[in-house]
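Long-time lurker. I teach an intro course on protein structure, and each term I like to show students one example going from raw sequence to a predicted 3D structure in token notation. This year I'd like something fresh instead of my usual example. Would anyone be willing to generate the tokens for the chain below so I can use it in lecture? Attribution to the forum is fine with me.
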Amino acid sequence: FTFIISIFIKFTEQDVFLCCQTRSLLGVFEEDAAAISKYSQQLFQAMHRIYDAQNELSAATHLTSKLLKEYEKQRFPLCCDDEVMSSTLQQFAKVIDELSSCHAVLSTQLADAMMFPITQFKERDLKEILTLKEVFQIASDDHDMAINRYSRLSKRRDNEKVKGEVMEDVYTSRKKQHQTMMHYFTALNTLQYKKKISLLEPLLGYMQAQISFFKLGSENLTQQWEDFLTDIGTSVQNVRREMAGEVDVMQQTIQDMEQANDLLYMPDPDPSLVPVNRNLTRKAGYLNTRNKTGLVSSSWDRQYFFTQGGNLMSQARGDVAGGLVMDIDNCSVMAVDCEDRRFCFQITSFDGKKVAILQAESRKDCEEWIATINNISKRIYLSENPEEIAARVNQSALEAVTPSPSFQQRHESMRPSTQGRPQAARASSVSSAGSETASPALSVLSLDALVAPNTPIQFDIISPVSEEDAGQAKAAGQGRRTNPFGESEGTPAEESEGSILHQLFIARFLGCMEVRNADSSDVIYETMRQILAARAIHNIFRMTESHLLVTCECLKLIDPQTQVTRLRFPLSSVVLFASHQENKRLFGFVLQTAEGRVDGRPIIVCYIFESNNDGEKICDSVGLAKQIAFHSEMDRKATEKKKEQDKAKEKQQEELSKQKQIEKDLEEQSRLIAAFSRPTPLATGTDGQFLVLSNSQSEDSDAGVEGREKGESEA
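-- Reply from a regular --
Happy to contribute to a lecture. Here you go:
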């Protein structure tokens, strides 16, 4: 019997209006009231037969006894295990069955003691329940009509009178519905007590009339039964006093709530009076959802939405249970500007295939829904203390948009007044939560040494295409676009087909800005802080979602819908990458290009992203790609070096062969020269006389020698 108190607690903690769970519980009470009405009608008819027909009094009494015995078989949703009541009625049924033959005439006594209580309960209490039910239904319908008018208000401010009337109508109808609802619930709760009274008082009056009328029935009605009836009378009085005390408490609670919760009746309360709670991991309430009815037309339906774990559920009026809308783990949510509605926000699933646009009732409700879904998207609800962790994460996000104290200390350490003092070889790298870690490499860096003051920030991916580039892309049948951030015109479309590594991630572009150096990860952390601070200051919630493709040659940002390459970063130009120390979903990398300036200095740009997965995994993937690319480059250089060595060896072998051939030719020439340099012997005759050669023979001999010398010289 503490249902009304639980409803009041629910109103003060969550909302002042009915939720679907409350309506379901209300249905149980209404079903119980219908069962009580049905049973009371049967009991009334049985007692009326006793009153009307003296001849049928015995049969009517027997029927009454039978109905009392069947009480324990009745299926009352709220009183199925009332053993005391069942046993009491069983004893009454036994007595009535024994005295059923003795009841002949009791018209006057029964009219006052038996028929009056049951008639009053039937005609006054049960009809009051039906009347309050009809009034509550009318008030609910009026409230729904007022809410629909309020939801259809235009965003223009030229008709403030209509807006005031609509808001006043919402206030009046909502207050009327709330008051009617509380009185209706009070009547339903009181009915549980009146049911006992309406059952026990007629029986008590009947028995007392029987005792007073049948003095001679003392044999049947012993002192034991009189004590039993006395105890029942005492119980009825106790129940009546308990009911009176409960009614007084409920009436006082109604008055206190009407005074304390007056602000909650306003559809769009002042945020300064009702602050936004950003640490929620569960939320429920009515939202308007947009449904497409055609190519350009849409309709808005009002449904009850609630979060259950990592799922967003909705329940239409009259449904027994809620249905799944989408999985909001690793989803993205942001406020959107609809043409015909205010306080709208959009939820996109983790794979980007499902989008839901919802409208809240007020700006406070819209911001709380966005904060709650963001907390669920980060899976904070799986922890032991989700609200405490959500508060700590939100505090970290607030600190991320405030100046970094460690960089302020470094800036002060660079002042001229401190140059004479020795510098300690230490530096602090501050994350978004304000934690400091040692970083000696940045001990003399200041904030200006990392990011130049007044550096412009780009919050969206811009891919300008000139007419000439567009014509070339069309002629080549390519869907790629060129841009000034690292994508070259001559990059082939099939460059990644031979890559060993192919990893695809979902990333949302937060912004990029030019930095002064790429010596430490503090450059990325400071860029994250400045971009998040700028987004918070300028209320920029829109983020471009892309597919980040990591290969051994480059990093690509691809449009998930058109598969068009938005940006391309050569892997050799990525000189630094890191993820946030606290918010692991944030990561960034630094791109350095040698061209772009007139003075020849390199351009260093830091890009910041938010991913659905852990940012460290993406950074590990980029690091793995660079390692694979490095080893591939080393293998290529080793192969080229080996080829050069083989060519040099072959050339050396050819030179050595030529040298050997020359030495062999010189040796042959020396042998021939030595052979012709010997003296010519004189010819002798057969008789031992010397012969003198003629001139012709001498000339022939000289010609032969000259010919051989000429041949040797040619050789």
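Some talking points for your students: The CA atoms of residues 71 and 86 lie 7 Å apart. Residues 615-676 form the longest helix (62 residues).
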